[in-house]
């Protein structure tokens, strides 16, 4: 083995990180659910910046 290739580290990397991966997925799901709920709320459903808003035929 050439000298510029480092030795493999004999420790586990992915297995101890499983709780952090799971927490990340849960947080991303919660943020997405909250954003979708806000876009569907009465306050923001007619906002022109809302991607789910219906186009206003009067605005040209």
Can you give keywords for this protein?
mainly alpha; 0% strand; 60 residues; 38% helix
Question: How would you sum up this structure, described in words?
Answer:
By secondary structure, this protein is mostly helical.
Number of helical segments with 4 or more residues = 1
Structural class: mainly alpha
Overall residue-averaged pLDDT value: 85
Number of strands: 0
What is the H/E order?
H
Strand percentage lies at under 5%
Shape: elongated
Organism: Exophiala oligosperma
InterPro entries: ATP_synth_F0_jsu (IPR006995)
GO molecular function: proton-transporting ATP synthase activity, rotational mechanism
Keywords: Membrane, Transmembrane, Transmembrane helix
Give a short overview.
With 60 residues, the chain is mainly alpha-helical.
Task: Tell me the layout of helices and strands.
Elements: H1 18-40
């Amino acid at each position: 083995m050439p000298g510029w290739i480092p030795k493999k580290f004999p420790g586990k990397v992915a297995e101890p990180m499983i709780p952090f991966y799971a927490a990340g997925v849960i947080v991303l799901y919660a943020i997405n659910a909250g954003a979708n709920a806000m876009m569907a709320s009465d306050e923001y459903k007619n906002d022109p910046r809302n991607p789910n808003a219906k186009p206003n035929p009067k605005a040209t």
